[in-house]
Amino acid sequence: MHEYITINEISKDLKIAERTIQKYCKEGFIPAIKSFSGIRTYSVRISDYQEWKNKYYRGSGKLIKKIEKDLDLTKSDLESMSIEWLDWCKTGKLNGRPIGPRTLEIYEYYFHLYIKGLGQHYTKPIISVNNLREVLGSYDPKSFSTKAKIYDSILSFSKYLIEKKLFTEAEKLELKKLKPKRVFPAKRTVLNPAQYEMILAHLDASPMPRYNKALTKALLIFIVNTGLRASEVANLKMVDVDLNQGIVSVWLGKGNKNRKVGINQELIKALSLYLELRLKANPSENDSFFTNAHGTPLVRDVLIRKFHRLSKSCGIEFTAHGLRRTFATFSSNRGKPLNHLRIALGHADLGTTQSYIMTTEDEVVAAMRGW
Hints:
By secondary structure, the protein is mainly alpha-helical. The protein has three domains: 4-69, Orthogonal Bundle (Multidrug-efflux Transporter Regulator, Chain: A, Domain 2); 75-176; 193-368, hpI Integrase, Chain A (Orthogonal Bundle). Helices cover 57% and strands 7% of the residues. The chain contains 18 helices and six strands. It has helices spanning 7-14, 18-27, 46-56, 65-70, 75-91, 101-117, 129-137, 144-163, 169-176, 193-205, 210-226, 230-234, 265-281, 300-314, 320-333, 338-345, 350-356, 361-368, and strands at residues 4-6, 33-37, 39-45, 241-242, 247-250, 259-262. The chain has a three-stranded antiparallel β-sheet. Helix 6 (101-117) crosses helix 8. The longest helix is centred in the middle third of the chain and has 20 residues, at 144-163. The chain is elongated and about 80 Å long.
């Protein structure tokens, strides 16, 4: 028995014109592969053909009309379908477990980036290996993070399409072959103690308004001393921060996990100064902990932009996530147990925590002189 079946054989089997079968293969409706024997034609693996036939064929040359219509899904169709897909992700209907709010934001943003990247002229079906290859290929090889997030969102959406009987496992396996691979090393920023002090000194000398200065300084010291993610900091409520007990409660962090972290005297001092101004500007005790001078809650993207501006103004490169690595590195250099750091950072795996510790070669050389 041959492993593949030809277009001619499919045409005879289905009693459908060979030209129509050729069109279905070209559109990706039939899971075929291209073959060249004088002219372009297609062949289909027999197992894939049987799966496809059982799903779509109803005998006497009839295919499920709904599926034929779905071949012509437009960008607006995908936009509409994405609402249900994200709801399935949120409630756990798609994967069996709910997906966290930050992951949902990533899926939504990069799914729309995929749609935008298709341009006006794209091949059908709209979710396909060809289209995903084109979109991913339009990004610089250094943009690994963007490519990986687009890929993850489309792969998740393909699971949704499978549940809706609009996609096959075979097609999803083809998409998996395009999983981006990191070509260049990840750019990871981390501060050394001297740089950290320079940034604090730059802030103290800055002409920015008093409230904004206190807020920015509190945020900087907060992440360097707790290692919280930018989203976790932005989501803090007044009741989550207990200065008397020296405890910060983090609710529904990454992976919908809760944890508590301790706060030291340096952070308590910075937060006390900020809170003195914060409670004058916005006295409510039941809303966001970090707000601007008008009481508007701080959101993750604003926090990230705030650090970006500070980085440029002081001439020291760092990011919000880089401050998280700084916490891990400072704590490790002070001899803090790795397992304590894992819990503080909210990591499930100790290996992830180890990757956050960015000890430099110069530090190792200096330490080895005293061995």
